[in-house]
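Inverse folding, one chain.
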């Protein structure tokens, strides 16, 4: 998506490293909002999904895919 890795690594102990990372994170989030990292290809079977699994899948889908955006 055209965003380099942040200059510092975790744990970011200095305030300047934390501030630089926050700036990088905003840039990354803006760039990554335009693409998806996964795409649903197919569903197989008809067995009901356990409610706990269904919640995990819902969280995954909310954070990992952005509708019909192109793959990153």
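Residues assigned per position:
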């Amino acid at each position: 998506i055209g965003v380099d890795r942040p200059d510092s690594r975790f744990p970011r102990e200095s305030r300047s490293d934390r501030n630089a990372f926050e700036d990088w994170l905003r840039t990354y989030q803006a760039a990554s909002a335009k693409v998806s990292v996964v795409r649903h290809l197919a569903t197989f079977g008809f067995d009901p999904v356990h409610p706990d699994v269904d919640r995990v899948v819902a969280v995954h889908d909310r954070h990992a895919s952005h509708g019909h955006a192109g793959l990153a």
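The chain has a mean pLDDT of 88. The two ends are 6 Å apart (CA to CA).
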